Amino acid sequence: MADMKAWQLATPGEVQTTLQLTTVARPPPALKPHEIQVRVISAAINPADYKVPAMGFGARAILPFPKTVGMDLSGEVVSVGSGVGARVFINGGSGGVGTFGIQVAKLLGCHVTVSCSAAKAALCRSLGADDVIDYGAADVVDELAARGRVFSLIADNVGYDPPNLYARAGRVLLPDGVFVIVAAGKHIGHAASAVANLIRPSFLGGGKNKVVLYLTSSNRDDWDALAQWVNEGKLTAVIDKTFEFGDALQAFEHLQTGSTAGKVVIHVSSKD
Questions:
Q1: Contact assessment for residue 179 and residue 209, using Cβ atoms and an 8 Å cutoff
Q2: Quick one: 104 and 184 in the same domain?
Q3: Which segments of the chain have a pLDDT < 70?
Q4: Cα(172)–Cα(40) distance, integer angstroms
Q5: pLDDT tens digits, residue range 124-139?
Q6: Residues of the domain holding 7
Q7: Are residues 94 and 226 both part of a single domain?
Q8: CA 248 to CA 232: how far, in whole Å?
Q9: What gap in Å lies between CA 150 and CA 161, rounded to an integer?
Q10: Are residues 151 and 27 in the same domain?
């Protein structure tokens, strides 16, 4: 394993007497899921770098020694753990679920690719989507395949469109990647196909990746995280159109067009 240089404080005490340029071992290449490895180009020093060590014996209760100085740094990320910057694909990024999905995925540190119409591309990008596929201009699965087998998760918010998305997901999902079925299509055949995907082995035509049929559930930790993001202004609801309570049928008819951008809301009562 190659070594590297570092300025370190050998023991507690004044920086003028304890700071040394030393040779240290490079960190092991194996990273934990949420770790990154950075080649440092510049580092900034802070008062804490010399004040805490100057506490003498008490400094050992706060810092490990020898202590490398320079808590702030800039540099180049040379490797990442498996959970850092995970790539996800959201099929149907501009709908009521997709618009939330983009924001949550970005808040979790993911790289987000979505499919949507050309007219909705700007909306998806404004919510944080890194990569947008116009399903009207190109084959979605071919476009995903061109990006490589790099995705950790596919969330299908459309259902059976494109119909070959799950069957060919093995070309783009990592070996431990997960395919999440959020919508199964409006015909019974589509629902049956979704169920078959859950149980059919790959040698009988099923996919090679784990399939999850999403069902809404309540989790206190998840709700707390969502509430915090909303309060901080990091998560917002995209409203496509609002209907009055008596116009519920018109609301469904509007939703059934399949061209909404965000949530379709029915106004139930006033705050008074």
A1: yes
A2: yes
A3: 1, 29, 34, 80, 82-84, 184-209, 213, 215-216, 271-272
A4: 33
A5: 999 999 999 999 999 9
A6: 3-80
A7: yes
A8: 32
A9: 21
A10: no
